[in-house]
Amino acid sequence: MEAPRQDVEISALAAGFSLGFGVLTVWEAIKQTRRNRNPLRSIYLYMVWGEIAASAFLGTMCWLFLKGKVSPTVSVLFFVLVSWLIQIQFLMQIIINRIGLIAEHRRTINRIKWGTAAFITLINIAVFIIWIPAHTIPPVPIFVKINNVWDKVEKVLVLLVDAGLNWYFLRSVKRLVNQHHLTKYAPLVAFNAKMMVVSVTGDAVLIALMFIRNTLVYGQFHPVVYLIKLNIEMSMASLIAHVARGGINDMYPEAHFDSSTGPRSK
């Protein structure tokens, strides 16, 4: 059954934004892939392209749901959640990769990386358990009630993780500037502070959209927000590469996602 006309129109607006930001994001991803010395071994680039693919899949599936072309079967809902899982996990690890580019202690970054992955995985597992039974036909009433609360709680938890990682990066850059007199990193402070506000605002918008009657409309906006976030991360990576060109020869050192995360202490 096709969704009400108003919901379709709102979703069409979100789809338009997704296409616009999608083009910009793909173009930036292509440029960064070309600049990387060994793109086939860059886990960062795999995550970037995985984020783009997941956003495209999620946006397409939500549109098909709204148009009544796809039914909410368990298998379809499962793959929708997988795309959502990829969006969340990859974006958080991309942020941590950015922190690792300027961090001094690899052990700390490793703890942040695996701690974040474990925490987000627990959220993912809870969502899989609750969300699918709440959206199948017919839905399970008890799971519908739980999902109405948990959906919002989960979004708040993701917002807090996102804000925490961005705050840690901002603090790390300030420490570099103040303690080691690395003034070339000063532009990162102001830029990251602004981008942190944009990123967290995106999470807040998603929480607000949870109160829309048709959750598929919310789902259509999810790729928009995460494409914007991905654009921010790629812009930050480019800026870091620009200001640290003398100290970091490769834009995305693979040490961050192989045996360790973060540059070697000096």
Automatic annotation (TrEMBL):
Keywords on record: Membrane, Transmembrane, Transmembrane helix
Source organism superkingdom: Eukaryota
Keyword field contains Transmembrane helix: yes
Transmembrane segments: 12-30, 42-66, 72-91, 112-133, 191-212
Name this polypeptide is given: Integral membrane protein
Species classification: Eukaryota, Fungi, Dikarya, Ascomycota, Pezizomycotina
